[in-house]
Amino acid sequence: METRVAVIGIVVENYESAEALNSVLHEYGKYIIGRMGIPYREKKINVISVAIDAPQDIISALSGKIGKLPGVSAKTAFSNAIFVE
């Protein structure tokens, strides 16, 4: 199986979507290397970065599901390296 390492940048503008976001991240938990969340209280948003090691289609599916949540946007940056497991 070929995997890639990527970082998904997430901006949460609708706090009511936080539970759904956590549920989606939990669903893909076996691929997640780590995550960091930063609450930006002055602007009432949250910024989250998720490092992931997974097949490219899994990463794209996760990013797509996140981006469909109301008030949540996501962008993915892929590494150029491909790993074979």
What is the C-level CATH assignment?
A: Alpha Beta
Order of helices and strands: EHEEHEE
Q: Give the number of DSSP strands.
A: 5
- The pLDDT mean sits at 96
Ends apart, CA distance between termini: 5 Å
The oligomeric state of the chains shown is single chain
Instruction: Give me the CATH fold name.
Output: Alpha-Beta Plaits
CATH architecture: 2-Layer Sandwich
Domain module count: 1
Description:
The chain is α+β, with helices and mostly antiparallel strands and about 80 residues long. It has two helices and five strands, in the order E-H-E-E-H-E-E. Strands 1, 2, 3, 4 and 5 form a five-stranded antiparallel β-sheet that branches. Strand 2 (about 30-40) and strand 3 form a beta hairpin. It is elongated.
What's the arrangement of secondary structure elements?
Blueprint: E1 2-12, H1 18-27, E2 32-40, E3 45-54, H2 56-67, E4 72-78, E5 83-84
Antiparallel strand pairs: 1-3, 1-4, 1-5, 2-3
Provide tags for this entry.
85 residues, alpha+beta, Alpha-Beta Plaits, five-stranded antiparallel beta sheet, 2 helices, 5 strands, 26% helix
